[in-house]
Specification:
Elements: H1 3-8, H2 17-38, H3 59-75, H4 86-115, E1 118-119, E2 123-126, E3 153-156, E4 164-165, H5 168-175, H6 190-201, H7 203-209, H8 213-234, H9 247-269, H10 271-279, H11 283-297, H12 306-322, H13 324-331, H14 335-338, H15 342-360, H16 366-404
Antiparallel strand pairs: 1-4, 2-3
Length: about 425
């Protein structure tokens, strides 16, 4: 990256309001998607799927956004003249992601045991009037448990694994980062974290790739197309090409998500140019662009539309980071503050939601159950951030400084 362009990259504050807000929106949407799975078949939920609310339930767009945002944040130092050495970067990033994963896994395991909560695989569906409602049309509604508190909630997946008591085997499977559906049974949202850890370990190589924007775009398109085609051919994944029971297919999924990491890196690389262009846009153009972005997110979450969603996410990132009007609106909301705790919220919310629903479903109104789960998750994720997450960051920095003392350390700077 030329020195003149690098100098044009604005000084990056410790927290970026727009990115924190987008992360908050993304994880809240994930929470709503999981609530929606439990609300399948209820007529009162129909309004959730009407525009513009339908844009909040696009699973493909939400997951793509999380990867693009992560890559964007990680890439900023590389294009701002503060590129870290390769090994210290990898050490700090691994500590930042894996230590909170270990603690949340143990926390979930402990809470499951003291509350006698079952481990539920994949998607749950809440019974209505004693009947289990399936989110899969080809699965007949059934009742598998005699206990009235349990038969109101069931997780169904591609392989329809029966709910079981949690065990240390579930914990070890999850922490192995195998990337398969069965290995994340204790907390199924961790599947996406596995791919992020893998991609973070090769992030410096992706930075080098993105020195040439045209080359990077061609590689991203090739990776996405080839990996998607291979996953479809194997037939061993879910409908969104996100999860699989095959370890080797999980690596194809990682390659597929590498394309979104490349997009995030390129957005950070061209941040000065994008900031200049968005700064010249009139307010009505900003509003029209946001309306177009929301309209794209409202499309069905078919995996073949992922490139279109990625483009819309890229536009949204640029608006949140570079549009002064958008930032002023976001600053008036709690979203930037919530952005600090989104990692803990993401990896805790599904297990806590399943736990609360198993204990409260059928005894309290459905809205009260969901609100309780939301508050419970916010409280625990905030506490986890200010204890474990901040501690993991300090540990990562300390180990990173130790790794920086190893001979042969080099930085990965953009040219």
């Amino acid at each position: 990256m030329p020195d003149a362009v690098r100098a044009a990259v604005p000084s990056v504050p410790m927290r970026l309001v727009g990115l924190d807000a987008m992360r908050s929106i993304a994880v809240i949407c994930v929470f709503l998607v999981h609530i929606d799975f439990a609300w399948q078949g209820r007529s009162t939920a129909d309004w959730w799927h009407l525009f513009p609310f339908s844009s909040l339930f696009n699973t493909v767009a939400i997951i793509s956004a999380l990867y693009i945002l992560s890559a964007y944040v990680l890439a900023l130092p590389f294009f701002g003249g503060r590129a870290p050495a390769v090994l210290p970067f990898m050490v700090k990033r691994f500590c930042r992601l894996y230590i909170p994963l270990v603690t949340t896994t143990l926390l979930v395991f402990f809470l499951y045991h003291i509350t006698n909560t079952l481990v539920l695989d994949r998607y749950w569906v809440l019974s209505d009037g004693g009947q289990i409602m399936s989110s899969y049309p080809h699965v007949e509604p059934t009742e598998l448990f005699a206990d009235d508190a349990i038969n109101r909630i069931l997780m169904l997946g591609v392989f329809y694994v029966m709910p079981t008591p949690s065990s240390w085997e579930h914990v070890l499977d999850l922490l192995s980062l195998a990337g398969t559906s069965s290995s994340t049974t204790l907390n199924s949202v961790v599947w996406s974290l596995v791919h992020e850890i893998r991609l973070s370990m090769v992030f410096p190589a992706l930075i080098i790739l993105c020195r040439d924007t045209r080359r990077a775009l061609l590689v991203a398109a090739a990776l996405y197309t080839a990996a998607s085609a291979a996953i479809v051919v194997t037939g061993d994944s879910d409908m969104w090409l996100h999860q699989t029971e095959n370890f080797w297919v999980s690596w194809l999924i990682t390659l597929r998500f590498a394309a979104f990491f490349i997009i995030g890196i390129l957005l950070a690389k061209h941040s000065p140019v994008l900031a200049e262009r968005i700064g010249k846009m009139a307010r009505w153009k900003i509003l029209a662009t946001w309306l177009l972005v929301v309209s794209v997110f409202a499309l069905p979450d078919y995996h073949v539309l992922a490139p279109l969603f990625a483009f819309a996410i890229s536009v949204a990132v640029c608006l949140c980071v570079h549009s002064a009007g958008t930032q002023k609106i976001l600053e008036c909301t709690p979203l930037p503050w919530l952005g600090k705790t989104t990692y803990s919220f993401y990896i805790l919310h599904l297990s806590l939601l399943a736990m609360v629903m198993q204990k409260m479903a059928g005894q309290f109104p459905y809205g009260a159950v969901c609100l309780t789960a939301l508050v419970f998750t916010f409280v625990l994720s905030t506490a986890h951030y200010y204890t474990v997450e901040l501690w993991s960051i300090k540990i990562g920095r300390r180990l990173g400084r130790m790794a920086a003392g190893f001979p042969g350390q080099t930085t990965t700077r953009s040219k």
